[in-house]
Amino acid sequence: MSKTKVLSFVQKYTMIIALVLVTAFFTWRTNGKLLMPQNLTNIISQNAYVFVLATGMLLCILTGGNIDLSVGSVVCFVGTVGAVLMRNDLNMWLAVLIMLAVGLLIGAWQAFWIAYVKVPPFITTLAGMLIFRGLSNVVLQGKTVSVTNEKFVQIFGGGANCYVPDFFHGENINLLCVVVGALACALYLFFTIRNRTVRKRSGLETDSLVKTAITAVIIVAVVMFFTMRLAQYKGIPMALLWVAVVILIYTYLTSKTTIGRYLYAIGGNETATKLSGINTKSIYFFAYANMGLLAGLAGILTIARLTSAQPTYGQNYEMDAIGSCFIGGASAYGGVGTVPGVIIGALLMGIINIGMSIMGVDANYQKVVKGLVLLAAVIFDVVSKKKNS
Amino acid sequence: MSDNILEMRGITKEFPGVKALDDVNFVVKRGSIHALVGENGAGKSTLMNVLSGWYPYGSYTGDIIYNGEECRFHTLKDSEEKGIVIIHQELALIPYMSIGENMFLGNEQGKKFAIDWDKTHAEATKYLKIVGLSESSKTLIKDIGVGKQQMVEIAKALAKHAKLMILDEPTSSLNEEDSQALLDLLLEFKKQGMTSIIISHKINEVSYVADDITVLRDGHTIETLVKGVDDLSEERIIRGMVGRKMEDRFPKRSGVEIGEDALEVENWTVYHPLYSDKKVVDNVSFHVKKGEVVGFSGLMGAGRTELAMSLFGHSYGTGITGTLKIHGKEVHLHSPRQAIDHGLAYVTEDRKGNGLILSNPIYVNTTLANLKGVTKRGVINPDKELQVAEEYRQKLRTKTPSVQQNVGNLSGGNQQKVLLAKWMYANPDILILDEPTRGIDVGAKYEIYCIINDLVAEGKSVIMISSELPEVLGMSDRIYVLNEGKIVGEFNRGEADQEKIMSCILSTDSAAKE
Asked: Rounded to a whole number, what is the distance in Å from the CA of B169 to chain A's nearest CA?
């Protein structure tokens, strides 16, 4: 390969290369402990809220580098509401619906000011951060409310028993998990091949066969490795199920629908979008209202995992989400970024976290490292953009 | 040593896709007022930006000889140290700072970490007196009028010990009285030995104040007229500015049937969005027929873009009044969406700023105004979208390896084609093309003209706003001339020529200044 080819390859797959390098580094430093079944499971369960929030945050960032600072507080408030409702023996599914509705309502409230009154998002959500943190405290009166509804914890949690039951009752290994992994691979292959033939038939460009094949082999290998590992532990964590649903829906939304297209368009050039007859206000509204909804889901996942609600929950969650987005290749100026990219960004952070924890690195140093990684990612984004122009 | 303070030799400056300056020579005598004139886009501002170091040494070719020595300016600061100070067309003052603070911004008095405010204001007062302002130097900029702000700019230049002052359209936002005061001030400075270069569209002012006049056209120096030697009448200068031959630069349009009125506008008035008592478009009435190309001529800031955008779903301005009829039916359009749905398209003059998403590929830009054409229940059909983009790529002969290229990687002419494709795909009946050939080369221009001809042949109507007179004359069936928000002339094809249009603008210009 020529030098420019290597360079463009590195540029295109920066995130994946970084992920591989970081994983390799920590596997080496932890003598392989990082990839042990339990640790892999933990990476998912511990970071479920990050995946969910980062996905929502991406939509906000796409509109022009706008962020939502309130998500941590919203997570806490939604969790508080849910915990209190369930303590009063409300039906669990009703409580879940109410929690999502509260999240959506808060999102809509902030979205209204941002989209229609043009209050800068930074200010609106900073206010939200204070308001909902305060309200959580008021409702909880500074105390902890524990979540005792076992079914709720089992369905949304990431704790000891929160796994999708193995219908196949495999011995030593969770058969369901293996089956799901294989199924996912099969689906992936099916769609890749179908897409290719359809495009070929209508005379559109396709990647070379070799490239498609190599990509497919790598993806299948990674997915199977991952599911086998999970199967060796307790199978599919429930949290993974919810995260997967969110990822699938929002990958589709951002890449295949008009609303997704408009999100990118606004971030790319707001005036051009407006003059193209697109109601940009409603797109802003959507992004922030949706962020509220996903913060609601993250709130559900959080109290289910921690089996309680406390006034301090959700602190710095907004930073995890924002960091994941920028590390995952979202542009600080908007218009650029993908859901898979952001998920890789979140995964990268998660692996660094857990890797350093296994190594026994002091928590404060962990923060320093995470900060440096974030800065490096954004510097890379800015510098590579400068070179392109 | 010669008595020339400045010689610019063989200056060539290229932007991607266009040569803004081509081997330009420009000589300024010490202690004179030298006017630089030319049409929009002739390269006047570019030349001055080269001189001031805004375009650093190395980004252009040619030599700058100032005070007998060759200069290589890398920043504005470099040229200012030598006494070359440029005053830009847009005032560069900060509204919520005082006059004194503004005057010494970047040139602070006292020590670096201890600004001497007493000295600042004392110095400011001194220079304010020279330019004839009696305001306190502590007055905020926002509290004084535009005319006085322009004077502050000049005082600011003096405070930098300017020996050569460059004024880019200094009177464009001033009324007659303020303009006169400014010009007299320049004459006063001349007596004291100051050299000035003034860029202006207002020919009467130029002949009043200038000793020498250099005419630029299409990035070339055409001629330098000297007071007392050459004829400096307005007609003579205009001839220099526009005097190119009408070559065969426009494709013939034949057999296009002109039908009934497609668009009728009556008593259309628009106010400025911020200064809501300022009329930007003033009681304008016009009509466009099916199959017709109607040209809108005028100077920059005449209100053409504002008129077009206000028609396009009130995208510009406040307090819009007047009636708009499309195909004989009165319509009220309050958003671009409504305008598009009624068959209107506005192809912006600022393709990078308002038209295209440069960071997105061609196909995304092509479908943006009519995404529902490739969408089913909110879901985009990616294959169909690519097909549409490909179809328009072939139709408009856009040069690109693929429609998946980012628009930012294309040349200006091809970007313009993508922008046209976007609006053609929206399938409008009436297209408003605002400066459709700005900043693109001659070959691409010809192709754009062909596209315009194809559009009217399909029975669409085209409104073409252009600052290039030959283009307006060569392409239009009818021409409206706009000045200061009013329609000041209407010509049929064949009736108009460049001198007529120019003098139409200039005569109303001086009449309006009463």
From this structure: 28
Q: Is B356 on the interface with A (CB under 8 A)?
A: yes
Which residues 418-457 in chain B show a CB within 8 A of chain A? 422, 426
SS3 label, residue A305:
helix
Closest by Cα among B179, B95, B181 to B143: B95
Q: For residue A276, what are its two tokens?
A: 């193209």
DSSP track, B398-436:
---S-TTSBGGGS-HHHHHHHHHHHHHHT--SEEEEEST
State whether residue B405 sits within 8 Å of chain A by CB.
no
Contact A277 B335 (CB under 8 A): yes
Of the partner residues B336, B364, B386, the one whose CB lies closest to the CB of residue A261: B364
Using the Cβ of B387 and the Cβ atoms of chain A, whether some distance falls under 8 Å is answered with: yes
- DSSP code per residue over A202-250: TT-----HHHHHHHHHHHHHHHHHHHHHHHHTTS-BHHHHHHHHHHHHH
How close B175 comes to chain A (CA, Å)? 32
The Cα A171–Cα A175 span in angstroms is 8
Strands B33-37 and B18-29: unpaired
By CA distance, what is A258's nearest residue in B? B378
Give the model confidence (pLDDT) of A243-296 as tens digits: 999 999 999 999 999 999 999 999 999 999 999 999 999 999 999 999 999 999
Q: Which two tokens stand for residue B273?
A: 């969005």
Q: What is the pLDDT of residue B487?
A: 92
Chain B nearest CA to A9, separation (Å): 17
Q: What is the pTM of this model?
A: 0.80
Torsion angles phi and psi, residue B41, rounded to 5: 80, 10
Band of residue A388 on the pLDDT scale cut at 50, 70, 90? low
pLDDT at B509: 60
Instruction: Give the separation between CA A69 and CA A104, rounded to whole angstroms.
Output: 16
Interface of A with B (CB under 8 A): 198-199, 202, 204-205, 256-259, 261, 264-265, 268-269, 271-279, 335-336, 389
Rg (CA), chain A: 21
Which of A275, A331, A388, A389 to mutate to probe the B interface, most B CBs <10 Å? A275
- Do A178 and A228 form a contact (C-beta atoms < 8 A)? yes
CB pairs under 8 A between A and B: 87
Taking residues A151-171, what's their average pLDDT? 80
Q: What beta strand segments (E) does B151-292 contain?
A: 164-168, 195-199, 212-217, 220-226, 261-271, 279-289
**HEC readout, B252-286:** CCCCCCCCCEEEEEEEEEEECCCCCCCEEEEEEEE
Structural domains of chain B, with CATH: 4-242 (3.40.50.300), 247-343+429-514 (3.40.50.300), 352-427 (no CATH)
pLDDT less than 70: residues of chain B = 1-2, 16-18, 40-41, 243-248, 441-442, 508-514
The percentage of residues in chain A with a pLDDT greater than 70, rounded to a whole number, is: 96
Both tokens assigned to B46:
């570019």
Tens of pLDDT along A64-104?
A: 999 999 999 999 999 999 999 999 999 999 999 999 999 99
In angstroms, the CA A224 to CA B52 distance is: 64
Using a CB-CB cut-off of 8 Å, the residues of chain A touching B415 are: none
**What are the DSSP calls for B22-43, one per residue?**
EEEEEEEETT-EEEEE-STTSS
More confident residue, A388 or A194: A194
Chain A residues close to B312, C-beta within 8 Å: 275
What pLDDT, on a 0 to 100 scale, did the predictor assign at position B113? Answer: 81
At A299-340, the pLDDT tens digits run 999 999 999 999 999 999 999 999 999 999 898 888 989 999
Q: Is residue A174 exposed (0-12), middle (13-18) or buried (19+ Cβ within 10 Å)?
A: buried
Judging by DSSP bridges, how do beta strands B4-15 and B18-29 pair with one another?
antiparallel
